[in-house]
Amino acid sequence: MDKISIIIPVYNVEPYIRKCLDSVISQTYTNLEILLINDGSTGNSGSICDEYATKDKRIKAFHQANKGLSSALNVGLENFTGDCLGFVDSDDWIEPDMFETLHNAIKAANVQISVCGYFKDTDTETIPAKNREQIPGGAIATKNMLLYPLQRDYY
């Protein structure tokens, strides 16, 4: 069973981080390595990362002075040990079967990358992200791989 490494950059997300981490550790795909990179948070985000790392052996918490998102992602990229790699924003949460579904799609289509849609939740509504052009199901040509995400309706 492939190990999926999930990189989660963390910066001042105390109100959201627990919901994020709970959604990741509750995945139906369980062979996970979860890398939390605290990028110099000034509140309790870093201590929440440490708390979760002590509760779940799949979690590794890294701490650095604030250097920005790219630097935090690079720490994750330098330290992951999985066969597959995923990313989650620390102010988001994911569906319970997200990584199982993405992993199954990679294996079924024999491709190197799998992506999924998302929703934007506000205080009053949930808005699905949609493309101007419908993305065909299944594998898409490499030349179109970067084109579709740039055509979101509400960007």
Structure summary:
This protein is an alpha/beta fold and 155 residues long.
Report on this structure.
The protein is α/β, with parallel strands linked by helices and 155 residues long. 30% of the residues lie in helices and 20% in strands. The chain is built from five helices and six strands, in the order βαβαβαβαββα. The protein has helices at 17-25, 45-55, 69-79, 98-109, 142-145; strands at 4-10, 32-39, 59-64, 84-87, 119-121, 126-128. The strands form two sheets. Strands 3-2-1-4 form a four-stranded parallel sheet, sandwiched between helices. A two-stranded antiparallel sheet has the order 5-6. The radius of gyration is 16 Å and the shape is globular. The mean pLDDT is 90.
Overall geometry: globular
Total strands: 6
Average residue pLDDT? 90
Distance from N terminus to C terminus (CA atoms, Å) equals 37 Å
Q: How many strands, what sense, and barrel or not for the largest sheet?
A: 4 strands, parallel
Count of discrete alpha- or pi-helical segments spanning 4 or more residues: 5
Approximate strand percentage: 15-25%
Spatial strand order of the main sheet: 3-2-1-4
Radius of gyration: 16 Å
Q: How would you name the oligomeric state of the polypeptide chains in this document?
A: single chain
Highlighted features:
globular; four-stranded parallel beta sheet; 30% helix; alpha/beta; 155 residues; 6 strands
What's the structural blueprint in terms of helices and strands?
Elements (H helix, E strand, L loop, with lengths): L3 E7 L6 H9 L6 E8 L5 H11 L3 E6 L4 H11 L4 E4 L10 H12 L9 E3 L4 E3 L13 H4 L10
